[in-house]
Structures are given as structure tokens and as C-alpha cells.
Design goal:
single chain; 342 residues; alpha/beta; Rossmann fold; seven-stranded mixed beta sheet; six-stranded mixed beta sheet; binds NADP nicotinamide-adenine-dinucleotide phosphate
């Protein structure tokens, strides 16, 4: 399976490491064969080799120089859109940065270019699903290819696979959850007595915070995930701008610790619900009692509760995910594609 990789940051490098240096640690990956026709970044160059870019060598370059080696035979300055439009590949793997102010661009254009050519797409970038899901899903259907994005909500934990494979025939009426790891991690750290600034730095060090942490702290990442869930599971056709949003920046450290002293928890809760045929979506801090399911979710953990017409509410929880979980979400989509292509 030839893939074109766009974005080689924390996530791209973790996937590369799992598929090369660490491959022997994960025997169940079995015959997964990923041949990277190209790896493209925004400011660190690109590597192109139709026979397959060497992932371990790509990682070494990043570790040694912080960018791809311009002296390498495979070095190129090709941009992502040009590569998506012209390279030979089977699957585009979109792992560039989330952009709210540009409404998911340029990732939307990368994905559209691939789908128009009948190429499958795996996106870790939630922007395109949050802003343009119905258009891109329709284009994929028209071209007979797949548009997969398991990792964009709750990393590798099954959310879209769960709905697609196990909730057939159910209409999703509502979703709620704690879906932003950074804010939950920061709230937990503040409860433990750390200042907010230090907690945010730690989240960045662990690679769980967005490149621009205000996207997490002001609730934009959570709003994007809420829009994704509403669009994919509830046919909502909304964008993150239609999610009634507030983050944790307006909350003081004292408010967080005093809630704990009263035996309660402050949590950033995402909600989307169908009301009289309309979807209402929101993200905001809520004070929850100690015995609420969401109160037990600490650190970088997440939880999602799905309400349907036929089934009683279902909950998916994830404890302390890290970059392996996010990488797994992408790898799971690649395995789905490899199996459907063979
Ligand atoms: N990390 C996580 O835990 C996690 C979890 C779920 C989803 N995601 C999503 O996965 C994506 C990647 O995350 P990450 O942590 O790897 O981010 P990151 O470390 O910031 O890396 C982003 C990569 O994308 C490249 N890029 C940005 N804009 C580009 C463009 N226009 N054309 C080509 N390359 C471009 C960057 O290149 P430069 O370095 O040259 O700028 C960099 O290589 C993001 O959309 C993020 O929201 C991440």
C-alpha cells in the first residue's frame, strides 16, 4: 500500500517509529505493509522515493537536524497540495496542523485533491471532518474510495468503528463526553496543586497539546471534536463555529481547587443533542458530583457517552492515552484499507 504522508510532527514520527524501529514489538501488525511514496512537511522539507522512503532514516534526520537533510538524494521542496495532486499513491495520510481560523484548510484541499483522484484518505487532522465532512464523504462515495479518521476523536479508541460496525440501525440522538485531553490533564494537575502554566507546559512536553495550546484551552479542539461527532454520527452538517463554546481560560485555579474541596470536579464537557429536529452543540466547564461517570476521568483520559433510539446509552472510556494511541488510530485505518484492497 503506497501512502503519501502529509505532516511529520509528533504523530507522524511516532507512526514511523512503530512501523520501523519498533515494528518487532507489535507482532499483531502482521502483514501491514506501508510504502511511503513521500513525506511532506511545511517548513522542514520533503522526502520522495517512489520505491518507498526509508522511515527509520527519515526519523534519524529529524532527530539529528530537526528537518529533512537537504543533501539527501530523496530531498525535495514539493508542497503538500502538489504532491496530493500528482504523486502515485493509494492512500493519503493527512497529519498536518489543525486550523480553525482557516476552516480546516489547507488540509481540506489536500484531502479533496486525493479523493478527486480516487485515492483513499486517512486523516488524523480533525479540521476537514469538523468543517467539510458531508462534502468530503459525498466525494469519497462518488469516487468509490474511503475517507477514514478514527483517531480524530479519542485517539485510537473505537468511536467511528464502533458506530459503523456495532450500532447499525440505531439513530444517534445525542453525544456527551470529555474529549480534550489537554484541558482534562491541566484541570487534574491544578487539582493536585500545580499552576496552570506549568501544567500546560507538561502537556506540551508529552505531545498531547495542540501545536497552538490556546486551541485546547479556549475549547476549540473540543468544539471541533463535537462538530465531528455531530456531523458523522448525527448528520448535523455544522462547523466548530456553530458549537456554543467556552474553554478553561476563564476559570481560576482557586475555582478548580475549591470545587475539589467541596467533593466536586470541574470538567470541560462536550455535548450535541437533537432537539425538535435541530442539533444543539456546546462545550463548556461544568461542575460535576464525585459519583458522576465523567468525574472518574482524570489526566489525559477521555470518555464518550452515546445515546441512541434503540440502545441504552453506551460509554467508551480511555485511560491515559498517549501518542501510541493516536498513532494506533491511524494504523487501524491503514489496516482497514489494506484488508479492503487485498
Ligand atoms: N498529537 C496528538 O496527540 C493528536 C491526537 C489526535 C489528533 N492529532 C492531530 O494530528 C495532526 C498532527 O499532530 P501532531 O501532534 O503530529 O502535530 P505537529 O507535531 O504540530 O506536526 C504537524 C506536522 O504537519 C506539518 N504541516 C503543517 N502544515 C502543513 C502543510 N500545509 N503542508 C505540509 N505539512 C504541514 C508540520 O510541518 P512543519 O513542522 O514544517 O510546520 C508538521 O510536520 C494534527 O492535526 C492534530 O490535531 C494529534
Amino acid at each position: 500500500m503506497k501512502v503519501l504522508i502529509i505532516g511529520f510532527g509528533n504523530l507522524g514520527q511516532k507512526i514511523a517509529s512503530i512501523l520501523s524501529r519498533e515494528r518487532e514489538c507489535f507482532p499483531a501488525l502482521g502483514d501491514l505493509e506501508v510504502i511511503p511514496a513521500g513525506i511532506i512537511t511545511r517548513s522542514r522539507g520533503a522526502l520522495i522515493d517512489p520505491q518507498g522512503v526509508d522511515l527509520a532514516a527519515s526519523l534519524s534526520m529529524m532527530e539529528r537536524y530537526g528537518k529533512f537533510d537537504a543533501g539527501s538524494t530523496f530531498y525535495s521542496e514539493t508542497g503538500a497540495l502538489e504532491a496530493a495532486q500528482s504523486f502515485e499513491y493509494d492512500v493519503l495520510v493527512e497529519m498536518s496542523t489543525l486550523s480553525i481560523e482557516n476552516h480546516g484548510e489547507p488540509a481540506v484541499s489536500h484531502i479533496r485533491a486525493a479523493l478527486e483522484r480516487g485515492k483513499h484518505v486517512v486523516s488524523a487532522n480533525k479540521g476537514p471532518v469538523a468543517f467539510r465532512y458531508s462534502e468530503l464523504a459525498e466525494l469519497a462515495r462518488e469516487k468509490g474510495c474511503r475517507f477514514l479518521f478514527e483517531t480524530v476523536v479519542m485517539d485510537g479508541a473505537p468511536v467511528f468503528n464502533l458506530a459503523r460496525c456495532t450500532l447499525k440501525g440505531c439513530t444517534v440522538k445525542g453525544i456527551e463526553g470529555i474529549l480534550n485531553s489537554t484541558t482534562n490533564f491541566v484541570l487534574t494537575k491544578i487539582e493536585q496543586g500545580f499552576p496552570m502554566e506549568e501544567a500546560v507546559k507538561e502537556a506540551q512536553r508529552l505531545g498531547i497539546a495542540e501545536a497552538e495550546p490556546s486551541l485546547d484551552l479556549e475549547g476549540w479542539d473540543a468544539a471541533a471534536k463535537t462538530a465531528v461527532l455531530a456531523n458523522v454520527l448525527m448528520n448535523a452538517n455544522i462547523t466548530p463555529y456553530q458549537v456554543n463554546r467556552s474553554g478553561i481560560t476563564g476559570i481560576t485555579e482557586e475555582e478548580i481547587t475549591s470545587a475539589r474541596r467541596r467533593g466536586r470536579y470541574l470538567k470541560l464537557v462536550c455535548r450535541a443533542k437533537t432537539e425538535n429536529g435541530n442539533i444543539k452543540a456546546s462545550v463548556g466547564v461544568e461542575e460535576l458530583p464525585e459519583n458522576h461517570h465523567f468525574s472518574a476521568v482524570s489526566g489525559s483520559g477521555s470518555i464518550l457517552r452515546i445515546e441512541t433510539d434503540l440502545m441504552s446509552p453506551i460509554m467508551v472510556t480511555q485511560e491515559a492515552p498517549d501518542l501510541y494511541d493516536t498513532a494506533y488510530g491511524v494504523i487501524d485505518d491503514l489496516l482497514t484499507l489494506q484488508r479492503s484492497m487485498s
